[in-house]
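Most newcomers find our protein records easier to grasp once they have seen one. To make this concrete, we reproduce a full record directly below:

…
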Amino acid sequence: MTGPVLESSLDVNGEGFQANAEYMRAYVERVRDIERKQRETEQAYLPRARQAGKLLPRERLAFLLDPGTPFFELNSIAGYGMYDDQDGSTSGGNLITGIGYVSGRRCLVVVWNYAIKGGTITPVNVKKLLRLQEIAFRTRLPIVQLHESGGGDLSAKSMATDPWGPATFTEGGRVYCQLAQLSARGIPQITVAHGNATAGGAYQVALSDYIVLVQEKTQLFLAGPPLLKAGTGEEATAEELGGAEMHATVAGTGEYLAADDRDGIRIAREIVAQLPLDPLLTDVEPVEPPRYDSEELLGIYPEDRKKPVMAEDIIARLVDGSRFLAFKPEIDPGTVCGHARIGGKRVGILSNNGPITPQAANKAAQFIQLCDQSYTPLLFLQNTTGFMVGTEVERRGQVKHSAKLIQAVANARGPKLTILVGNAYGAGNYAMASRALDPEFVLAWPTARQALMGGAQAAKVMRIVTEGKWARKGIKPDKEQKKKLDDTTGMIEFGLEVISESLYCSARLMDDGIIDPRDTRIVVDFLLETVLEAGLRKPRETSHGVQRL
């Protein structure tokens, strides 16, 4: 095993620990409440689904996945509080996406949630699809899609933010472009067309490599019967125009004809079973569990964000045997670097116990280059207020050395995973591999924050700038001016705290999801396997995607 055992200084019996744990549990519950409300919205559709002879979206997902295997859902609260969503009931981007096992193969899964807003295409829906495709390019995983969509969302709220949908239309075109490119890269895409697929939704299906049609349920066409009549005067039923039998026997759009929902999913599973098996990882040691309970991760991060948090206390509860070989531990312990194993797999870990100094930036950049040399995956545990500022550090080359660290992170060729465990402010957010620096996955603890700076700091900057402006102009502010400044700085502090909160950021896909701190080791282990397998997958590329002739 790698390195000496970490001795944690965390007092798990103290009052502070218990208060921290309650604070974290409350945030975890907020995320779970949003997810429950989504499921309640879907479940309310059950009578209509049964009347139509359909399974609900999550029932379809359950039939698709191998029983008893993990499914890691991505971007579960995308769109929370956006457009016309009030409490999370209609969040999720009308999609269920994630990584799971189908016929023994690790796959990316997309289930269109037709039970929420008809599975319509919205700006959030498109961004979520684009993110999933980005993951597909990086991981080279097959994509299995269970499709049923009402087409573009023309509701008042959606139209108000994107009148007539030009931005969504353009980004939607990017989705189709990347469907074609994924096929050309040799990454198979299997789609079951469970119901309506009109216009752009039709291309979402037709650009797949394998298509399963469902009798008397699939409706696949560029223009539905009403638009057809309005545009050309022709009258036709949906079945005549784009039903499953027509596409299977006449147009040749699909390869397989299923009797119903379950049969379509069965066929999809059989198609996946013909694909190559997942590659085997060889550089894996026997797994030794951490010496500290993962439950204790709940009590590490305090509500008072000014209180220090020791990265070593987190690492000791994540890594095999709580063993960690620290790199240059005597050089600026405010930035922590070192080697460990998680689930038997090598990993280089970087985290923070404070702001990043020039010395720390040099240490971290060197460590990243060493990991890059040995193709060791990097795990960033973000907890930084940013780079240290001041005359002294600027004279020591802070800008130069922080730029060097960003260079090292951006150009590291091995896999990168990021967990936002605490603060993630300023350029330190970039340097510790936030979404901007392109890691394979970014996840967040529920109480994490990411922004240009903290609300209190931003408010203070505004006060200093305004008071300096008054002084230069010789203005002696009266009570009304002072009150207005107090109100303004108060709004800035409150506003920045709101928009830096994990729920706000995750709703806008600034990460791939919020996780319970207790699940961190399990999730990192699963994602390490996923990204390491990607380097072993050898899809056969062609000059164009698979085409139906």
Summary: The CA atoms of residues 385 and 479 lie 34 Å apart. The chain has a mean pLDDT of 91. Residues 26-273 form a domain with the 2-enoyl-CoA Hydratase; Chain A, domain 1 fold (CATH 3.90.226.10). The chain is about 40% helix and 15% strand.
